[in-house]
What we know:
Elements: H1 2-10, H2 45-50, H3 55-63, H4 66-76, H5 88-93, E1 104-110, H6 119-126, H7 128-142, E2 144-151, H8 156-171, E3 187-192, H9 202-209, E4 233-237, H10 238-250, H11 252-257, E5 268-274, E6 281-286, H12 291-297, E7 307-311, H13 331-336, E8 345-350, H14 355-369, H15 375-392, H16 400-410, H17 420-434, H18 436-444, H19 446-455
Parallel strand pairs: 1-2, 1-4, 2-3, 5-8
Antiparallel strand pairs: 5-6, 7-8
Helix pairs in contact: 3-7, 3-10, 4-7, 6-7, 6-8, 7-10, 14-15, 14-17, 15-16, 15-18, 16-17
Amino acid sequence: MSQFIASQRDSVRYRSRLMQTEAERHPETHPLTWRLRDDGEVVWLEEYLSKDGYRSVRKALADSDPQAIIATMKDANVGGRGGGGFSAGLKWSLTLQGDDMPRGYLICNADEMEPGTFKDRLLMEHQPHLLIEGMILAALANNSCFGYIFLRGEYVTAARVLNRALEEARAGGWLGADINGSGFDFDIALHTGAGRYICGEETALINSLEGRRANPRTKPPFPGQSGAWGKPSVVNNVETLCNAPGVILHGADWYQGLSGDRSENGGSKLYGISGLVEKPGLWELPMGTTGGEILDRAGGMRNGRQLKAWLPGGASTGFLLPEHLDMPLDFDTVGKEGSRLGTGLLTIVPQEQSIVALVRNLEEFFARESCGWCTPCRDGLPWTAKVLRALELGQGEDGDIELLEKLAADCGPAQTFCAHAPGAAMPLKTALKHFRHEFEAGVSARPVKAAEGQAD
């Protein structure tokens, strides 16, 4: 287990590093990253404007048709890049709108705490105006009066960069009253979180933003009907919002064409990889790129190691095997294999890594980050971690594996108040499916160790 943790620490220095040069990135194929600089410096407002910055906002303001923005985003089928994959355009279309409705809020979920995920950090630290531009478009579509960026508190550099970019945008007339002379008023504030994974759930995030305990809310009502301070609110991930400028500027057909014939889920995606590979990092690639291609781009396994398993998109996704490397990484295909695309950042597990120890480490994290609101999550996850700890030490008992299966089922979809526990259950369920023999070994070793203890 220490080797796996060390590999994750080793990848930290790469976690905001794009592994493609400017020569490899083009406006027509890399809408998220083509503006980034090879020297790693921030793309500030003057440079951003010279690279088509805020052109989509000018276009949208000139058209003055919020429904057209929503329709284009729906046709482009921009799936939520925070892990859920839900259509951003469809979410926007469900927000209460109309002349008699109060103006609501636009909230960017930048609380990037999914283990193994570091894509949003790249966008915020190096290209903050792309996020601001995407938020303005979302605000226009949803008649939002104000926006918030809910940022992971540990992202200190991102906070500094975003605050400066927000000041630049206000000074340039892109935020505040009467944006670009259009009569539309909208501004954005940066809010840093206190470091809770549960704030990745949109209603828990809203509670935290309001100064309340970060517990998920009952749905319905959904945030689009009653969100922050009781007003219609839209919550989208950083990468999701960063897709909006390209879609509005170039159209839905262009966006769908970015993935070619790889996937029916159109667009490009920030894919990444961490673990014991030669070159951990990030790439903007067509949606539907395979795990094998990403592993090849990373230079393969480090020091000739063999691949045992991999997580396709963070700790709350299900384990896949080496034979799944040829599978297109999109929301639909990965879902059919019993996992989720999640954030699209692969976590590599080498052959020598104990799956029991790895899953125990993940379940301890999820147990610690539970808000404690519902019983299966509050009590089931610590119990799961306790059983796994015993199996890891070879002190498991008969029935432990069946107990783990029941705990995973009790934490599954529709059994808990939010998606936290189902996310925690997915790596456990798939580990039991693919590596059951490793769990069984933790039971069979117990009588020997007990006998040795009695002899002492």
